[in-house]
Amino acid sequence: MPPRDPEAGTNGTNGTNGVNGHSDEHTPLLGSAVRSDDGFVKRHAKEGWNATMSVLTSNYVNVFLFFVPLGIIAGILEWKPLTVFTLNFLAIIPLAALLSYATEEISLYVGQTLGGLLNATFGNAVELIVSIVALQKNEIRIVQASMLGSILSNILLVLGCCFLFGGMKYKEQTFNSTVASTMSSLMAVAAGSLIIPAALYNSFNNNFDPIKNPDQYQHHTDSILLLSRGASIVLLILYVLYLFFQLKTHTELFSDEHAEEEEPETPTLSVMGASMVLVIVTFMVAVCAEYLVDSIDSIVATTNISKTFIGLILLPIVGNAAEHVTAVVVATKNKMDLAIGVAIGSSLQIAILVTPFLVILGWIMGREMSLFFQTFETTVFFVSVLITNYLIQDGKSNYLEGAMLLGIYTIIALSFYVYPDNEQVKGPGFPL
């Protein structure tokens, strides 16, 4: 994006604005006019006020922001679990919209490629924080469910909504096929990293009873852990190489092909202002998500909803609300490269960065966190990646493809709804 002319300016769309503090006078709709003859303190106070009003009026769902303090107070005072869950669920909605707004502001400075990467990173902060807390408590099942659910939510639900709502506005949308091909290949590698430990475990334990042979079972478990930790190191190296490939050596392949066809948009916030919003909102999302997760056990005990369904379906939807809002908004603006970068990029980060990182962290903490998932979950992941890769490899999308992704996600959600909580789970991190 070429630098903006600081002398140009009409109505706050170019040049002067109260956020960046150029020399001309600017009067925002709900802000205060910033004049060149204002004193230092007064000028920066007006700029801060204008920036705050720009953030608060950026989306109509921001009227739900009052649920944020209510949700936090409910968690601190230990109100009824259902009340805590509902308030914090509603609180995350406007916070996700603010995260979407701030990320789009930054993407106007750094471009869609890095903007999508930033949004995926901030969007995964919730899952990472919750997983580290669960890992410390040796809740391996919760960690794995959160990781798998987040991946499925992004590549099926979020991407499906992008294709569907974007396809309702445009007959056909295009995106960078090279980016799609690279991401789909890496997702296939991630799927393989889960299939191989599951296949090896089933091969080990096909012809013996682990209850009668605990020593042999422990030997097999140690082998799976060794494989998982080695594979995690390889995946982390691949992620670093992917970043180097994307941001350094092959940046031209990831450039926005349609950038020259569109009128350049002018950011409302400065880079520093948008970055502060990202950090503050991400922290608030993490706080609300923590109280929301803490209320799950009580909800499971008082309702017919299983912990498996909550962990794999409901929580990822809440945790990925930021990516969901951002991706759908930019898709309806025909910015499919950014939408793909947010949706699939977030799944990619979970699969080859966050999950391997948690395996290594568990190794350091003495927890048996591994890449071994149950057979049913591994199959679901493989099918989801396969379908997604087929739909994005041509670099084109329409509403029917979006409906396909949402359809398979609904089927998977139903399967997890009937998946029993008392299913016997075996493997590293799960006692016999």
TrEMBL record:
Q: How does it sit in the membrane?
A: Multi-pass membrane protein
- For the region Disordered, give the residue spans: 1-28
Q: Which residues cross the membrane?
A: 59-77, 84-102, 114-135, 147-166, 186-204, 224-245, 271-292, 338-364, 371-392, 398-419
| Compartments where located | Endomembrane system; Vacuole membrane
Instruction: Please give the InterPro entries that the UniProt record associates with this protein.
Output: CaH_exchang, CAX-like, NaCa_Exmemb, NCX_ion-bd_dom_sf
Q: Which keywords fit this entry according to its UniProt record?
A: Antiport, Calcium, Calcium transport, Ion transport, Membrane, Transmembrane, Transmembrane helix, Transport, Vacuole
Q: Name one GO cellular component term.
A: endomembrane system
Where along the chain is composition biased (Low complexity)?
9-21
**Where the protein is mainly located, per its record?**
membrane
The source's domain of life comes to Eukaryota
Which parts of the sequence belong to the Sodium/calcium exchanger membrane region domain?
A: 82-247, 277-417
- State any GO BP term from the record: intracellular calcium ion homeostasis
Q: Coiled-coil intervals in this record?
A: none
Molecular function (GO) terms listed?
Answer: calcium:proton antiporter activity; potassium:proton antiporter activity
Family, per entry:
Belongs to the Ca(2+):cation antiporter (CaCA) (TC 2.A.19) family.
Tell me, in a sentence or two, what this protein's role is.
Has a role in promoting intracellular calcium ion sequestration via the exchange of calcium ions for hydrogen ions across the vacuolar membrane. Involved also in manganese ion homeostasis via its uptake into the vacuole.
Protein name listed in UniProt: Vacuolar calcium ion transporter
Native organism: Dactylellina haptotyla (strain CBS 200.50) (Nematode-trapping fungus)
